[in-house]
Amino acid sequence: MFRRGFILFLPRLVGLLVVACCSVSIVYMLACTPKGDNQQLALPRVHSPTVKEGYEAILQEREEQHRNYIISLKKQIAQLKAELQGRTEQLKNMQNQYPDSLDIQLDHSKPEKAQANLLAFLRSQVDKAEVHSGVKLSTEYAAVPFESFTLQKVYQLETGLTRHPEEKPVRKDKRDELIEVIELAVGSLNKPDGVSKAQPRVYTASDFVEGIYRTEKNKGTLYELTFKGDAKHQFKKIVLFRPFGPVMKVKNENVNMADTLINVIVPLAKRASKFRQFMQNFREMGIQQDGRIHLTVVYFGKEQMNEVKSILENTSKSANFKNFTFIQLNEEFSRGKGLDVGARFWKGNNVVLFFCDVDIYFTAEFLNSCRLNTQPGKKVFYPVLFSQYNPSIIYGHHDSIPSLEQQLIIKKETGFWRDFGFGMTCQYRSDFINIGGFDLDIKGWGGEDVHLYRKYLHSNLMVIRTPVRGLFHLWHEKQCLDELTPEQYKMCMQSKAMNEASHGQLGMLVFKQEIETHLHRQKLSSKKT
To answer: What residues form the membrane-spanning segments (predicted)?
Structure first.
């Protein structure tokens, strides 16, 4: 009984103790309130005659303190707003009218200003470089060529001391640079866009197809990387720029090439056997693997014409291929005239034109490169193809010459980048028509391609000039006719000399007698000993 009463009384006791403690605390706070800056601001006693006046004085003083504090805060906020507005205007002025790099003032005593100046300069480098549009150039040698690369190799025009047209493994500084760019592009592709609610696809380096890059010495390095898209014939393209500093993303776009048709235009006179070889390549790569292709053959004269038409018709029947056009001209062969007629004969929608020759071998990957590097009103593609040396010289010490597919490897012993040739090119028909087409006054071999190339260089279109791994010029014996002009004859002979073999291989042929004599002497010497 006593225990139950104690339990009931315990909560009341605890409550009374809490109330007592609170009361003591309040009295202590009222009695021990500290003074202001120099005098005690104690509350007056309850029975004091100045109770009312004392409270009013204290409240008035406290109100004055709060008012002064609010005024001070407002002044600070106004100052910060003015400073922020001034910095914003300063940054806008620097972005709109920024001086040359020599005028940059990196004042380390003001790190924020130095950072703003540097950022504005880097962005101005993107605007000054040939990234968004082409620039007018004076000659064909003024164009800065691209290099192309995959995960394993770099295909380069500037071969350096090694003279290798392809480099594996690449130099460490170049390898580190390209790995950084690929990783940055993959990170950009995997960054959520905040729009799509679907589970995003995770990209990896294995989705990388190919890339091209070039460096403008006083601006920076431009990178264009292509990745596999979400479906067949779809790609992701990332454009990056390194303005001698951090890489900046310029563009991230979807590229759908499923409906992009290529019209391959081939001018031809005689050479039926070569055309048969060309059609084997066209059937396998163009019809069977790619499928989005049209063939236009512009034939000069009538000799061997029926044989050529028969080859074309047989391919059409066996491959169920109807997308071809045969045009016959009764006049002297002119490559420029044939290509021009073939381009203008097309009556469909705007199409990618691939100007080709009968002694060219291309892959399905090249056809995609042709599509990806052309854009109406903006870009034309001038690939640097790999030219094959004379197989009888290259494989003269072998038991037999390998098959054509086995010969098409990119090595300095097997061929060279044909960087002096501008005949194989991809561009939209609208750009070709707007630029004025070929100079039809040029007859015979050579010259018409350079003339067209110069037209594009003198325009505002961007010229993509890069070596490609899927385009080969097959070796054939070259005949330089007496009817050619002196300039054309000289170009033809230069081309003929370069087509035969490498410098070292030609040297072995020139000094063949000396080498055989030396080996014979060595053999006799070894017998005597």
So the answer is: 7-31
At residue 492 the predicted structure's pLDDT band, cuts being 50, 70 and 90, is: confident
Note the pTM of the prediction, 2 decimals: 0.67
Residues 6+ apart with CB under 8 A from 306: none
Q: Which residues, 6+ apart, have CB-to-CB distance to 200 below 8 Å?
A: 190, 192, 193
pLDDT score at 12: 63
Cβ(272)–Cβ(307) below 8 Å: yes
CATH fold group of domain 262-507: Spore Coat Polysaccharide Biosynthesis Protein SpsA; Chain A (3.90.550)
CB-based burial label for 117 (10 Å; 0-12, 13-18, 19+)? buried
402 compared with 371, residue with greater pLDDT: 371
Q: What is the per-residue pLDDT across 180-194, written as a single tens digit (0 to 9) for each?
A: 999 999 999 998 766
Using one digit for the tens of pLDDT, what is the confidence trace for 139-148?
Answer: 888 888 999 9
DSSP symbols for 380-423: EEEEEEEEEP-HHHHTTTSSSPPPHHHH----TTTEEE-TT---
Express each pLDDT in 239-267 by its tens digit. Answer: 999 988 667 788 899 999 999 999 999 99
Positions of CATH 3.90.550.10 in the chain: 262-507
User: Which DSSP category does 331 fall into?
Assistant: S
Q: Are 300 and 331 in contact (CB under 8 A)?
A: yes
Look at residue 187 in the predicted model and tell me its pLDDT.
93
CA angle 435/441/446 to nearest 5° reads 85
With CA atoms as reference, report the closest residue to 360 among 333, 335, 377. 335
- DSSP structure class, residue 146: -
Rounded CA-CA distance 494/508 in Å is 20
- CA 125, 131, 132, 136 dihedral sign is positive
CA distance 271 to 60: 109
Residue 89, strand partner residues: none
